Amino acid sequence: MKVTIIGGAGKMGKWFINYFLKSGHEVTISDKRREDAKAISQSMNVRLARSNIEAVKDAEIIVVSTPINVTPKVLGEISEKIPKLATVIEISSLKSQVMFELRKIAMKGVKTLSIHPLFGPGTAEAFEEKIALVPVSNPDYELKLAKNVFPKAKLVVVDVEEHDKAMALTLSLPHFMNIVFASVIGQEDINALKKLGGPTFTIQLALSEGVMSEDPLLYSSIQIDNRFTVQILERFISNANTLKQHITEKKSTDFLQFFGNTQSLLLKDSEFCEAYERMYKILEVFKEERKPKSDW
């Protein structure tokens, strides 16, 4: 099949290039970052179109892998040029902003998928990885279509509202926590702290440094463009201030009550009892990766 990836010079764009090439498809890319796109075109042996309009011509699958705030504009730009039998797949991390344009395309009889890969571009392939599927117009048909395109993935069907609220909790909040953590730790001697830090610090530092190595424009959009972010962060800061007050006022009883109440809340997670063991398994993976490689 002929596959077009708009935004092919981005990290997820390159992931989709690999995915479709391995599946035996012919890939064309377009991207406003022309120099990066040229380099990828040459290194990965894919065709580089001069524009998004040229890229979608004759395409059977069109993947829109662009920044969240740009995706609606890109969908509008290509909407009149999409071949009737093509499938349009958009992959943004937030769905409220893109759904209007995507539904306009679907009303023209074009097959559409709104997915959110729940993994990063470092993942080797979509084998048992989770992909959120947000129905556009025909949930049953779109689920069947998504299974055909991503047969090995675990598809999670979720509506727009539920998806974006979940992203405020699973992306915005963890990113916020790790950015603030990094802003504090970054003012200290990190190498000295690594010598003294235990498992909690080691894992937290790895998470924070992982977050801080990502694209700041993407992470800014995840925070600012999600209408649920602020209310989630307000809850977090309110709880943090309550706990800080217990510590400031040296009220160990109140601290223990806060801790105990939070433990009780986490018992809803069926895997909570194995959390401590899982933390050490993660640490063992870190240790294994840091072992000096043998020359033999």
Write the layout of secondary structure elements.
Layout: E1 2-6, H1 11-22, E2 26-30, H2 34-44, E3 47-48, H3 52-56, E4 61-64, H4 71-78, E5 87-90, H5 99-106, E6 111-117, E7 130-133, H6 139-149, E8 154-157, H7 160-185, H8 190-196, H9 199-212, H10 216-224, H11 229-248, H12 252-266, H13 275-290
Helix pairs in contact: 4-5, 7-9, 7-11, 9-13
Would you write up a description of this structure?
With 296 residues, the chain is an alpha/beta fold. It folds into two domains: 157 residues, Rossmann fold (3-Layer(aba) Sandwich); 129 residues, 6-phosphogluconate dehydrogenase C-terminal fold. Helix content is 55%, strand content 12%. The protein is built from 13 helices and eight strands. Strands 3-2-1-4-5-6-7-8 form an eight-stranded mixed beta sheet, with helices on both faces. Strand 5, helix 5 and strand 6 form a beta-alpha-beta unit. The chain is globular, with a radius of gyration of 22 Å. The two termini are 44 Å apart. The model has no long low-confidence stretch (mean pLDDT 94).
